[in-house]
Write a structure and sequence with these properties.
Layout: E1 13-16, E2 20-32, E3 35-44, E4 49-54, H1 58-61, E5 64-65, H2 69-78, H3 90-103, H4 106-122, H5 127-148, H6 152-163
Antiparallel strand pairs: 1-2, 1-5, 2-3, 3-4
Helix pairs in contact: 2-4, 2-5, 3-4, 3-5, 4-5, 5-6
Length: 166
Amino acid sequence: MADKKYPFKIKQKVVYPSQGVGVITSIIERDLNGQKVPYFVIYLEVTDMTIMAPVDKVEELGVRAIVPAEEAHKALEFIGEIFEPNPSDWKLRYQMNMDLLKKGTIMDIASIVRSLYHRSKVKELPIMERKLYESAKKLFEDELSFALRKNKDEIETLIHKRLENK
């Protein structure tokens, strides 16, 4: 398998939308209807879980490399910007944010964190939205931590400062 071109390398850190930051531990082949199908084996430390993703489906699944530091800084700036509030109907808001989470770019995740943080300042979030906020914030913190090479506490402080516009 070493002669094939893959979008990621073994030991590369990647973001798996709605799951978190993981590391590619290996590339294995599995037999599927008589065909050899290559899979990335991704270990997610935060949940101590291993996921197998078919190599030809990673783009569709939204698996991507950790963003460069410059893009991480842009996302951090973005969460501190003024924005139009989301719809007041929480179900509509929830669906919009779930769609963003599935797309999984760092800016999508930043958008969820920003809008739900500010919404929670106005009115307590429903349980499902609160869980969505917590998981989006965790994803955001994890990726920023790796992209900016800072520990989780420093990242949490940076995010909070930007959200509070300080």
